[in-house]
Every structure is written in C-alpha cells, then in structure tokens.
TrEMBL record:
The chain crosses the membrane at residues 44-67. The keyword Cell membrane does not apply. The keyword Transferase applies. GO terms for molecular function: ATP binding; carbohydrate binding; protein kinase activity; protein serine/threonine kinase activity. PROSITE patterns: PROTEIN_KINASE_DOM, PROTEIN_KINASE_ST. This is Putative concanavalin A-like lectin/glucanase domain-containing protein. It comes from Helianthus annuus (Common sunflower). Residues 1-35 are annotated as: Disordered. Gene3D superfamilies: Phosphorylase Kinase, domain 1, Transferase(Phosphotransferase) domain 1. Residues 1-12 have a biased composition (Polar residues). Keywords: ATP-binding, Kinase, Lectin, Membrane, Nucleotide-binding, Serine/threonine-protein kinase, Transferase, Transmembrane, Transmembrane helix.
Length: 433
C-alpha cells in the first residue's frame, strides 16, 4: 500500500513532460497557422480600400470638372447665333502702370509701334499729321468728351480721331476704360479701336472710319432735312445693335454694361450697318444676377433706366432700357426728350408706351418720313419688343438674346421681300422690292 502511495505521488516522467510540451507546441503552431491564413486577406483589404477611394475621388473630380466646363461660356467669349466672330479676351488687360515702353508712352517718351494685341500706339505728331494739324475742315463733331476729326493715317487708312479734353480723374478713367475694353473686345458689331495716343497731356483715340456718321444725325439732322432711312435699314440697324449688346451682356464673363447706349453712339458704315461705340462709361458687371453693381449715376437723360437713375444700381437690364429708347427713335423719328412738343409728348417713353400695344395708335406714331412704307405686321411685332424693353420694372425686360431672336425673322423677311404685301398705302406708294 505504501508502495502504491509512493507511485501515486511520483512526479511525471520526462516522457510525460515532453509529450505535454509537444502538445502545447502543436496547439500554438495550429493557432499560428490559423492566424497566418487570416493576415494576408486583411493586408489586401487595407491596401485595396484606399486605392478604390482615391480612384472614386478622381472620377468624381473629373465629372465635376467636365460639367463645369460644359456649363461655362465658350473659350474667348465665342458667341452663338450670329456672333461667332465675337471674342472677349478676359485676361489681356493693357497695363498702364508697368515699367515697359507702354508706361513711357502714357506718361511721355517714345512709344512702341504697336501693342501685343495689335492696337497701335501713336505719337501726338503722327495724329497731328493725320488730321492736317487738326484742321477745322476735318472736324466731324464736338461734345462734352472733346473733338472728333477725320484723319488719314500714315499707311493710308481712313480713321476717326477723338481728342479727349476731359480733365481730372473722370477723364483719365474714361480714357483708360475705353482703351482697355476695346483692346479686348472683338466683335463686328462694335467700332474697332485702331490705336491711341497718351503723349504727355494729350489723350486721343483712333477708330475705324464710319462714313455715314451717327444714327442720331441720320434720324434728327441739324438742318431739318430728313435723310431717309428706310424701314429695312432701320430694322437691320436695330438687329446690329441688339447683337452688340447681346455680345456684351451674355457672351463675356463677367458681363460688360455699356451704360451710355444711345443713338449718338451708334455709327453707320458705308452699307448703313450699325456699330456701337464710346465705351468711356462702360462698367464690368459682377457675377451676380444680370451683373448688378452699384455706381455713380452717369449717362444721358432720356436713356437712363428708372431704377439706375434713382438708386445707382446698374445691371445689364439698364442697357436693355436704353436699347428700347433707341428702338422707339427708329420707329417714331422723335428724340427722347423734346420740350418743344405739346404737353404730354415731351418724354418719348411715357408718350409712346400706352400706344405701343394699341394696333391703331401704333400705326399713327410711326415716323412720317417713312411715308407708310413699312409692314404693319412687322411694326406690331417691333412695337411689342420696344414695349417690353422700356418697362419700368427691370425684371420684366427681356434678355438681349430674346430681342435678337425676335428681330431675326423680321429682318430676314424684309431682306427677301416676304412682307411687301402688308405695306400700307400701297395704292399711293409702290411697295419696296
């Protein structure tokens, strides 16, 4: 019995310990092998997930960039619907404050022959020679801005040279604005700036020559003798001007607000095609709706939109109002403000607006110099356009693109003689061919 107790209390043999250790090692190896099989999968996931996330982010970025590009204006401000040759180089600003030869030209010194954008820089002596020392026989007109002369440049190019005499910051600002904008705006419906001179105190602008003068002079000649503009020519001028404003408002980024759109700033070439000029008061709009900005009220009485005149808040719709006034001039042959007329007829817009939607009254308000040679159907349509443009509430005025699209079929029908059958007084006056 004692022997059995002794055997029972004997420590385990080396064989037992070895076996136990072997079993423990086997279990550890088993767990290790199991962990070893899990670890590669985790590693793959850790590597793949960031890669997939990066790829998704890149794809989203590309889609967003593509959508923004699709929504943004065409490069260089390329316009549609007839304005394909119009461009606005938004970043090609001519600097007047640099240290180049341009600065020496502005503040004195010998200028370079041309700028990088093809706008020539003239000396005062060159323009003196071009105008025969600013001879009075070459004087075209004069106004608050200065004097306008006909000139012949050294290469034989006929031109119009505007000598600015406005002093102070306003004159300097107007000069810089016109040079800067017209050197970047390229459109067949805007007068071309050929060059400029800023030789010491002399500020002159050189434009392409427009042989038929201003629309104002054609509609309201000083000598009282009417210079007939036919209905077809008037509608073509209206469309040309609408295209010019469409380009400025809707095909430049940000938009350009002319701020002084009027018949004296519409010039006519040898074919009586209209071009818009005088950007001295023009403003670059904001990125807000209709490019709204707040500014000092400047412009010409009779053409100013009521909200701009009263608050100084300027938008592209302010130009639309001014365009409506010019359209009324084309229809009626009247000036915007005429105190020589009977009471109630002094202001063109207030007199015309109630008549524009009355089919009988609108016929009676047409310029008598047309002698009834117009399409009544076209007249009613144009009167409706004018009525919308001169609405007192800016929100009710149309976009210039809408005006252009409304005028295109009218001009097209006149060009192809499709509306001659509706001319009034056809028994007295033979219709136009």
């Amino acid at each position: 019995m004692v022997t059995m107790k002794t055997n029972a209390t004997e420590p385990p043999t080396r064989t037992h310990i070895k076996g136990s250790r072997s079993h423990s090692l086997h279990d550890n190896q088993h767990h290790h092998n199991r962990d070893h099989h899990i670890h590669p999968e985790t590693t793959i996931l850790v590597v793949l997930v960031p890669i997939v996330i990066v790829i998704l982010l890149l794809a989203i970025s590309l889609v967003v960039a593509f959508l923004r590009r699709a929504k943004s204006p065409k490069p260089n401000g390329t316009a549609a619907n007839g304005n394909k040759s119009c461009m606005f180089n938004a970043h090609s600003i001519i600097s007047f404050n640099g240290t180049t030869d341009m600065k020496r030209c502005i503040y004195g010194g010998r200028p370079p022959s041309a700028t990088s954008k093809g706008i020539q820089v003239f000396t005062y002596k060159e323009l003196q020679s071009a105008t025969d020392n600013f001879n009075q026989t070459n004087l075209v007109t004069k106004g608050g801005f200065g004097y306008v002369y006909r000139g012949l440049l050294r290469d034989g190019t006929p031109s119009v040279i505007k000598m600015l005499h406005r002093e102070g910051k306003q004159g300097e600002r107007a000069f810089r604005s016109e040079v800067d904008l017209l050197s970047r705006l390229h459109c067949p419906y805007l007068v071309d700036l050929l060059g400029y001179c800023a030789d010491n105190q002399h500020k002159l602008l050189v434009f392409e020559y427009m042989p038929n003068g201003t629309l104002y002079d054609r509609l309201h000649p000083c000598d009282g003798r009417p210079q007939l503009l036919s209905w077809g020519i008037r509608m073509r001028i209206a469309l040309d001007c609408a295209r010019a404003l469409e380009f400025l408002h809707e095909h430049t980024t940000p938009s350009v607000i002319h701020r002084d759109f009027k018949s004296t700033n519409i010039l006519l070439n040898e074919n009586f095609r209209g071009k818009v000029s005088d950007f001295g008061l023009a403003k670059i709009g904001s990125y807000k709706l209709n490019g709204m900005i707040s500014t000092r009220v400047l412009g010409t009485t009779g053409y100013l939109a009521p909200e701009y005149a009263s608050t100084g808040k300027l938008t592209t719709k302010s130009d639309v109002y001014s365009y409506g006034v010019v359209l009324l001039e084309l229809l009626t042959g009247r000036v915007p403000i005429d105190t020589n007329r009977p009471p109630g007829e002094h202001v063109l817009v207030s007199w015309a607006l109630p008549r524009l939607t009355n089919r009988a009254a609108v016929v009676e308000m047409v310029d008598p110099n047309l002698h009834g040679q117009f399409s009544r159907k076209d007249l009613i349509q144009v009167a409706a356009i004018a009525a919308m443009c001169v609405q007192s509430a800016a929100d009710y005025r149309p976009l210039m693109t809408d005006v252009v699209q409304s005028l295109i079929p009218i001009v097209h029908s006149i060009s192809f003689g499709c509306s001659t059958s509706s001319f009034r007084f056809s028994k007295r006056i033979s219709p136009r061919s």
